[in-house]
Amino acid sequence: MNTVATIILLCSITINVNPYRIDKRQVENTFAPVQVKMAQESFECGKELALEVMGMKVPNHYGILKETNPATEKVWGCIWKRLQLIDEDSVLNQENIENHFIDTMKAAVHDSLIDKQSMKFIVERCKNFRGSNHGATAIKVQNCITERIALFAFFEKVFQSSMFN
C-alpha cells in the first residue's frame, strides 16, 4: 500500500493534483479528465511494479524528474506506455504527447495561451531525446517538454504584463 501511495503522491506533485483528494467520488467532480487518467494510470503502474517503485525520486519543484534513477525510469515508462505516449521500443506517439500536454496545461493553467501549434513546436524540439530504455526516453522527453513549457509560460507572462500593454 505504501508503494501505491508513493506513486499517487509523486504523480500528484507532477500534475498539481491535491494528493488528499484521491477518493474516486471527489476525483470525478474535481479534476480534469487528463488528471484523472494520469492518477488512474499511475495507480495501475504502482500495483504492477509493486516494490520496484520505492527507489523513485520525487521531481524537483519545477517538475523535472531525475534522469539516472532506475525506479523512476520504470514508473515513468509504465505511465507513458499506459497513456500511449511511448511504446516498449521507445517509439514516441507525437500526437498523443502533444494532446496530453495541452490538456495538462489547460487543467493546470486555465488561461494559458499555449495552443496546438506551440505544443507541436515544443514536442518537435524534444522528440529526439533518447535514453537506454523506454522509461529513460520518457523522462528525457518529459523533462525537455517541461522546461520548454516553463519558458513559454514565463514569456507569456512577460508579454501580458503592463510593460507591453
TrEMBL record:
Entry protein name: Uncharacterized protein
Origin superkingdom: Eukaryota
InterPro entries linked: PBP/GOBP, PBP_GOBP_sf
Organism: Photinus pyralis (Common eastern firefly)
Keywords: Signal
Keyword Zinc belongs to the record: no
Signal peptide: 1-19
GO molecular function: odorant binding
